[in-house]
Amino acid sequence: MNKPVPCASALQSQLNEVGRKVRECNEENMSEHRFQLQNILENGGFPRDTPIPAEADRQYNNPLRNSRGNTPFAPATQTRDVLAENLTPQKKIIAFNHENKLCKIGECARRRGVEVDCPGHEGCTATLSFEENAGDEKRGGRKLASILTSGSHPITVDKLCTDADGRMAEGFGDEMKSKQGVTTEHYLDTVHLNRAVAKAISRARITPQLVTEHPCKSKEHRQAINRLADSIAWRAEREVRAANQKFGNRKDLAAQSITAAIPALIKCYEDKHNLCRKYSLVCDGEKCVHEYIPKFARGAYRFSPSDTEVLAVILRKRMGKEATRKTRYSLTTQKAESVNHAFAKTNPKHSMTCSRNGVNRDHSAIHMVNNAIGDSILIKAKACNVPLAPNSPALSTLHHMNRRQSYFRIRASSSREIQQSTCSSTTKQISLV
Length: 433
What we know:
Elements: H1 8-43, E1 52-60, E2 78-85, E3 93-100, H2 104-111, H3 137-149, E4 157-162, H4 168-180, E5 185-188, H5 190-203, E6 209-210, H6 218-247, H7 251-268, H8 274-279, E7 301-302, H9 305-319, H10 321-326, H11 334-346, H12 358-370, H13 373-383, H14 393-432
Parallel strand pairs: 1-4, 4-5
Antiparallel strand pairs: 1-2, 2-3, 6-7
Helix pairs in contact: 1-12, 3-4, 5-6, 5-9, 6-7, 7-9, 11-12, 12-13, 13-14
């Protein structure tokens, strides 16, 4: 116990070396996952260079809402671009891009009067200059495509799902087309799109009237008006799903049915079901359940002509022909966004920003997501030349962590399947009422 206490600089040097090895370990692990995808394609009778579907998302190290409107650029100094494959149920992370504007070495040099440019000098940790826009998702998409198409196991993507508020798919498709000659189709995340529709209806300042015999108070009246946006977005999603289920691969018929249901949907909230009998696949014109709406307000809304026009314009963002084409397969970016929870553990957004080892912490989080927690710790410890003894108590604890994580994953997937089956059965019951 008489060992001397290490100094802070020695601990930092050791941490930098460990972070570098963890980053190399995760890059090798993602390359192995890309190789496994090629093996899966080959075992299924497809060529190894067959394009696969994928999903991508970007996260910033700062909450964007804090500085919205105060700067023309994204108020962030670090960005994380994650791409997950959609070929297997596990949806492994197979590409990651980290961009950083921070460099402590360059900052200290400038304080001493030395002119240095970041990035570019020796030991610089920045990948972007402060003049560049950290919110350029098109550049991030190009880098993700470059990572996939390079290396010993290149992967091509023909279907990419992203949220609707960025240009990542545009840059990704340009790079994939130029490097591999593969055209990448862009699809929208249905969850983000439904939220955007509900938010647009809430901000549209429509003023519907409530015609009801129920003596509602002002609070109940406001509640019925506020819930209207969520209810209309929910109904639009059900119309799209019902049309896709009915027409299957007949995309043109599905798009026509969905677009024709827009005026019927609006009139349905006014308790006018003439158009529902002809165009709607959710309401048959007799009885319709409006989710999220209080019972006294169902069918009691009255929209002015201007309100009807505004609602129709907003609903075309979800039920128009272009939106129907881009949401044909009901893809989401939930897996790519779930990595944000792992980033919150290894590189917290609100408490600190690591200028040097932030990228290493992010790679550690991705390695933990792609592998079980216990297995990830074992692999990273072995990569850092710190192997555990076969019969050590730590090893048994890590195996217990794996079993516990597997149990909760199976439980969560079972609950999601039950919820999805309940939603589908509810839609069928509504269509049969």
